[in-house]
Design goal:
The chain is mostly beta strands. Helix content is about 10%, strand content about 55%. It contains one helix and 16 strands. Strands 2-3-4-5-6-7-8-10-11-14-15-16 form a twelve-stranded antiparallel beta barrel.
């Protein structure tokens, strides 16, 4: 879809509805975690410091799937995520600097700024995303840990025309989802489900999306307080509705895609490195759309001592 340079501005009525929606959204984000406490089942024994638990607080986590970013209270971390998506007629390269902070032992906030480096629709900062994640349930035993969280985020569009419609949120939209993770010394299993609700900007409304994701990982090497190396395989599916332009359905939009992405994660006490390459296993696209051939993604993250 090409950018419409002379689209009329949204009416004041539409802008007012969006502003009210944003206010209610962030009110819920601020109030809900205060009313809902994490249910913790903490055994006296903990998993041994080996395998996936070799580095305390740095177990394996997904590369492309959303969530699982709960940090200890007062802990600050940062990361840089980058990906390149190759399609039949275009290439999109995006970089995503991220800063996260643990507000409480069960609540974290994350702020990210999406910047497109190479795209046929334009380059530059496309939007700012703020995300809250709340752990509803957590458990530790002598053999495994598990956690269930809810994730909510919102995007503030800066240059929506250049936005590449990433996997987890649409430009100028709101997202809510849930995650589950169970980690053993040798194995890790995770799954997540969520949906995004897009808003109208310049009479363009991207289709709402539903995400369904799952993955499995196997520890390769782990030395206590030194490093860990784990291999993961993620299955990420996205069902996306069709785009509306001036309330008219754009026929070459929407559909369902499923990617499988093997990756490697290497972590030390200070930093974590994660890289993977995904390939489509299903692309049921409506109308005439360029099919993706692969996605190459990587992330570097580090934590600061408080």
């Amino acid at each position: 879809m090409q950018h419409i340079d002379q689209s009329p501005l949204p009416s004041k009525q539409k802008m007012g509805r969006n502003a009210n929606f944003i206010f209610i959204f962030f009110f819920i984000l601020c109030i809900a975690p205060q009313k809902i406490q994490c249910k913790v089942h903490d055994a006296k024994e903990h998993p041994p410091h080996s395998g996936n638990f070799a580095i305390p607080g740095k177990g394996p986590h997904p590369l492309l799937s959303f969530g699982e970013n709960i940090l200890p209270e007062g802990k600050v971390g940062s990361a840089v995520f980058a990906d390149t998506r190759q399609a039949q007629s275009a290439n999109v390269t995006e970089i995503l600097p991220v800063v996260a902070c643990g507000l409480r032992k069960d609540v974290s906030v994350l702020v990210a700024a999406s910047t497109v480096l190479d795209s046929p629709l334009g380059v530059g900062v496309t939007d700012i995303v703020i995300q809250f994640e709340h752990a509803l349930y957590a458990k530790k035993t002598s053999t495994f840990t598990e956690q269930a969280t809810i994730v909510v985020n919102a995007g503030l569009p800066i240059n929506g025309a250049a936005a590449p419609q990433r996997l987890y949120i649409s430009t100028s939209g709101f997202f809510m989802g849930a995650t589950y993770n169970r980690t053993y010394t040798d194995w890790v299993f995770f799954t997540s489900y969520g949906g995004s609700l897009s808003t109208t900007k310049d009479e363009i409304k991207f289709g709402n999306a539903f995400l369904y994701q799952a993955g499995i990982g196997r520890n390769i090497l782990g030395i206590r307080d030194e490093y860990l190396l784990t291999g993961l395989v993620e299955l990420t599916g996205t069902y996306k509705g069709q785009t509306l332009i001036a309330n008219i359905v754009y026929p070459n939009s929407g559909g369902n895609t499923v990617f499988v992405t093997p990756s490697l994660i290497f972590a030390t006490k200070r930093a974590t490195f994660h890289v993977g390459m995904g390939f489509p296993v299903q692309q049921n696209l409506l109308g005439e759309q360029s099919r993706r051939q692969y996605i190459l993604a990587g992330a570097i993250s580090w934590a600061y001592d408080q």
